[in-house]
Give the backbone structure.
Amino acid sequence: MIKLDEDALICDLAETYNIYDYKQLPLLRVAVFSYGLRDDSRIKKLMSDQVVSLDTLLLSLMVDKLSLSLWLQTKDGQKGINQPKSIASQFIHKEEKEEDREYLVFKSGEEFERCYKERLASLGGDD
């Protein structure tokens, strides 16, 4: 936690436990206090790669579903145009899509070896 964002941890410890200088405490005690922080604390949100709290995410999902159901009752919804934008999608980190990845295809083992050696040389490796 300290390595990830020491300032966030200090702020969370100060807010929750009124600990302003955690370095004066034994390491085990700081670990116990850190483990006991709420799931929506700054450091835990950073560790779990969350942008907002779970409550906010659930509320945004409810708004998205409501706006989608209302949109489906309009003329645009019946035609399938002008679909409302999702609020929750802004809060969710998506992994890189499979089709967005670049792949190299080789016709032979020799072509692979040549490309491998070129890349290794460009990175400063030896072989």
